[in-house]
Write a structure and sequence with these properties.
Radius of gyration: 21 Å
Distance between the termini: 16 Å
CATH class of the largest domain: Alpha Beta
Order of helices and strands: EHEHEHEHEHEHEHHEHEHEHEHEHEHHH
Number of helices: 16
Bound molecules: uridine-diphosphate-N-acetylglucosamine, uridine-5'-diphosphate
Shape: globular
CATH topology of the largest domain: Rossmann fold
CATH architecture of the largest domain: 3-Layer(aba) Sandwich
Length: 388
Amino acid sequence: MAQERTASRRIMVVFGTRPEAIKLFPVIAALKEADGLEPVVLVTGQHREMLDQVLEIAGLVPDHDLALMQPGQSLDEISARLLTGIGGVLDAEKPDMVIVQGDTATAMCGALAAYYRKIPVAHVEAGLRSGNIYHPWPEEANRKIIGSFADLHFAPTDTAANALRREAVADDRILVTGNTVIDALHWVTAQLADNPSRAGVIAPVEARFAGKRIIGVTTHRRENFGSGMDDIAHAIRDLAARDDVAIIFPVHLNPQVRAAMLPILGGLDNVALLEPLDYLNFTRLLQIAELMLTDSGGVQEEAPALGKPVLVMRDTTERPEGVAAGTAMLVGTDRTTIVTQASRLLDDAAAYAAMAQAHNPFGDGQSSARICAAITEWFSVNGASQPD
Ligand code: UD1
Ligand code: UDP
């Protein structure tokens, strides 16, 4: 008589950078709750301090940590280390499925290493496309590579699902789930509401700038390195010349970002250049900011959910939903355009009100539960061919 299967399916969740950790900790929590699924957490350490900040807040202890980050790493160096490092763990663990998120080098190499072993791949935040292979770079190519062979594509929105259909991904492999960042944001805002003192890093900066109108800034995109970053820095400096505003700018640890920003913005009275904030403190910044200036992907999703106008310092976006909802506007990296659009929001109450509407085009906070249900269903259909 055939033995009845009782063992859980082991789902290896692979991530390595701050945004992946933020968008996957709710998925890991849901996997732990789901009957018949068991998460195994592999962090690559593509990021170190910025990853650890999220692990600590989420109370996550990885099963494996490859600790791969090197200062100033190039794309080929980090990708080579990732592919062989992740491959070694997959050979040892032999998971039933691998989950990757988004479009980082870790996500692309994690998916590729799984594919090389014919392990099914589930892609969270699938189908984002800017249509320009160099914007963002290298993320647009990374996500297309994952999309070309993933078994399950968890698209955050209908727009993303349609992009996958245009690339001939079969309908029964696509599920619109919402973006798990909203699950994370709901969790963190509840934590802040219960215990505001957890935003203890931002509190003294908030006090220092009492009465000022706060502009929050983040920037890190590789395609902006060089003249783009220089223009962004000068635009922020121009805005800081207004005495009614204060800039709060947690500076990404990429040495190229710091080299571009610190010389131009250091030492200004109403500019606080901070170390990267943990997710609790960064969410508090989103709450107190009048507007955000950013080239980040995640911030484009969080700001609309909180009704904060966001000026996106890029020429293209793979997240058109925020623009369509009216909360986000593409301003590129041109110094004059950034200053003009930010000043318009500061000086024109009607223009500000038109953008400061809370919208949730990116989800309802239940994305992780949908993802777990879909994985369970996938195994019920495809499970017979899986090894014991
Ligand atoms: C990476 C991702 C990008 C994602 C971003 C999120 C790739 C190719 N890029 O870009 O898609 O949007 O993360 O932030 O996958 N560093 C530290 N400590 C840290 C993190 C970074 O010192 O905790 C420094 C190191 O010198 C490191 C450098 O930043 O070499 C670059 O890190 P890397 O992950 O290669 O690129 P990011 O620009 O962070
Ligand atoms: N974030 C954070 N601390 C910071 C800056 C950003 O916790 O100092 C969070 C932010 O809320 C969002 C994510 O990090 O969820 C975005 O990460 P990043 O901009 O580095 O990457 P991207 O989203 O562009 O890939």
